[in-house]
Automatic annotation (TrEMBL), chain A:
Positions in coiled-coil regions: none
GO terms, biological process: methionine biosynthetic process; methylation; tetrahydrofolate interconversion
Domain of life: Bacteria
Species lineage: Bacteria, Pseudomonadati, Pseudomonadota, Gammaproteobacteria, Chromatiales
Renumbered residue ranges of the record's region Disordered: 1-20
Organism: Granulosicoccus antarcticus IMCC3135
Protein name: Methylenetetrahydrofolate reductase
Gene of this entry: yitJ_1
Automatic annotation (TrEMBL), chain B:
Any Pfam family matching the protein: DUF5981
Methylene-tetrahydrofolate reductase C-terminal-like domain ranges (all copies): 42-126
Name of the molecule in the record: Methylene-tetrahydrofolate reductase C-terminal-like domain-containing protein
InterPro entries xref list: DUF5981 (IPR022026)
Lineage, uppermost ranks: Bacteria, Pseudomonadati, Pseudomonadota, Gammaproteobacteria, Chromatiales
Highest taxon of the lineage: Bacteria
Amino acid sequence: MNGFEDESVPGYHSHILPGHSSPGRFERTLRAGHFVVTTELAPPDSADPAAVYERAAVFDGYVDAINATDGSGAHCHMGSLAVCALLTRLGYALIQQISCRDKNRIAIQGDILGGAAMGVCNLLCLSGDGVQTGDHPEAKPVFDLDCMSLLEIARTMRDKSTFQSGRKLDHPPRIFLGAAANPFVEPFDWRPLRLAKKIAAGAQFVQTQYCFDVPRLKAYMDKVRELGLDEKVFIIVGVGPLASARSAEWIRNNVPGVHIPDSVIQRLKGAADQKAEGLQLCIELIQEIREIKGVSGVHVMAYKQEHNVPDIVTRSGALNGRKPWHPRTYDGDATVQQHLENLQ
Amino acid sequence: MYWLRKWSVRHARLMEITYNTVERCLIAATPLYRRLGEKRLEKPVAAIEKVVKGALFDCQMCGQCVLSSTGMSCPMNCPKSIRNGPCGGVRADGYCEVKPEMRCVWVEGWEGAGRMKHGLQISTVQFAVDHRLKGRSSWLRVIREQAEIAAAPEPLVQSSNAAEKKTL
């Protein structure tokens, strides 16, 4: 269960199975029908690679892929491509995030090729948060593309082996394409149809915004199944632990697109240990989400609580006894150890 | 002219009928426009377009108008220039994440599309804008494209859905 028979040595590509878009472990796990767990790595405000390795090691054996965020919330951190570069060398499965906020189509296409060359097999195409929410509100927002155009460009590069201009690539990026979805904000009746639009543009998997409202997710999934979209895309639902009622209220008021019902805040307020209650709530949410037909996994966004991810994954039973591959899987293999040490 | 922009979306069906009529007239006048010369017409037509569409839709003159596919709500007024629907940051009251005083361009557009006969065009994937066309007339571009389609013996190989794209 640890991996696949043809598991490659870090830094080297394994081959692409029939019907797959990428040689990646993440796509393989999804297509094999497993319930997947992904998470995101908060990139350091540092030039020290050790910070990245330490942050990734927390997830060893608990997640199928790690999202390398691209200036999330419009805040400055180490770049997504650099985080991917460091971690793919150790063999981690990365989901490279690209936001349209900071780069035009020329820079973005360069980054797609760069990521794929380093062994990134998954790309998450985002429009990106507005600069006003970040630490540099005076910045110039680019938005040369939107997420839909970005998906189309990435798909064209992969399937037609050309840049958007039509100029030929020597070697196309073998990537599994993802997008974001937010079923929890207006206009609700359009959200499933917008998902259809993203699929038409190339999305093969989606990761959703934080879910704290299961009835609303269920209503969304009912419509998604009615449209047959669950057959065309892997839906991974975003979850995360809330630290306290106060922080939940802050998130609700200040983070765009996060919907937290009053009932959740009341429940946290009433708890003796709010942090433990937040964890418990997250675990219960995962268990409820697992039961919804058409959901392929959960995306655990434990901002500033990354150390709790193993606990959340274990206690929720999300992996159903499965142990995802991680670099330390190779412990005891002297050749691979040597290879990894040389890289570090 | 924010109120007029909202009025136009509220009367999306009327706008659709008006546009279809205008488009037919413009296409009928193709020989005239040929005689006068494309280049000479570009500036005055773009100026008229800017006034009319600027008033009605807060048009930004991207040169690739897709109002018929956006419920008559101009996507270039979205602070993220999203041409394919609402981002995930729409506020609970339907207002914009970036400009809290403005209703989401796409919440408006979705309502507008519901009032139109061909509102379902909102499901078409629109590609990002070609910045070379900024400031130029969308009307003349459509006439040009229509003429090319009529003249071509076989379907032209061109950007994905140029033939489906309508302008205003």
